[in-house]
Amino acid sequence: MVVVVGSSNIDLTALVDRLPARGETLLGRQVMQSFGGKGANQAVAAARAGATVGFLSKVGRDANGALIEQHLAAQGLSRMVLLRDAAAQTGVAMILVDAAGDNQIVVVPGSNQHLTPADVRQHAGLISGARVLLVQMEIPIETVQECLQLAKRHGLLTILNPAPACSLPPEYVRMVDVLTPNEREACALSGVTDPVEAAKMLVRGGVGTVVVTRGAEGAVISRGKEVIPVPAFVIEAVDSTGAGDAFNGALACALAEGMPIEAAVEMAAAAGALATTGRGAQAALPTRGEIDRLRLSGTRRMRSFA
134 in a domain, yes or no? Predict the structure, then answer.
């Protein structure tokens, strides 16, 4: 089983011809409301990729929280603990997507910031019964630490998606088996500007394996002294929202199945590519059949890394 601990949001997405410059007002073409949050996205992505999934999150006692609860109940999650907080509104993400599928996102965490270490300890059984833990940074950092500690105590493989990026204390890093930043996050965490060098530096800092996602450039795996390029799948992108979450959910599924890291990242890359072909985060997440078909027949953009 994959257990995901993380955020649940309502997403408000505006389609624009181009992303605005600083201080600029643009007219949008369309606005949509959908379901998101990195935690929920990754939990649904793992389930659609074929994993048995447990999910722990917190929403508000408001209309958005009720919508999320109803929606997630229909998403095939095997075990779900969705806590309700009377003191905070449910998290909201505001997303701009341009004609090329690129995006800008602002997240107002709301109840996600009220998911506490005590909540995690209260539901420790959800973690202890899993093979893989997947956690992100849209919840308090001390809650992330509690998740990692519990997971290591029970022998789980741990995946940390450090988004949004923030400074990680060394004791956190040593509990992470697989770190999955994108290029910007890898550079922010390492202090270097080249994403491949950033991956190497993060490994030297104590992470077991670093997988840097690079969009159309694919991904790079760094572990020990190895650097392994994973090519991107060539696909027509419509909206990149949720692509990283699709990648992480599929990666967790593949590693829970015992796949080697190279095959797991290839499967994750296919899932991330497919997620860009539809609008919204969870609505565009692919199924295992779709992922496998792209892996077998898809064209890849080959890159080499020094």
Answer: yes
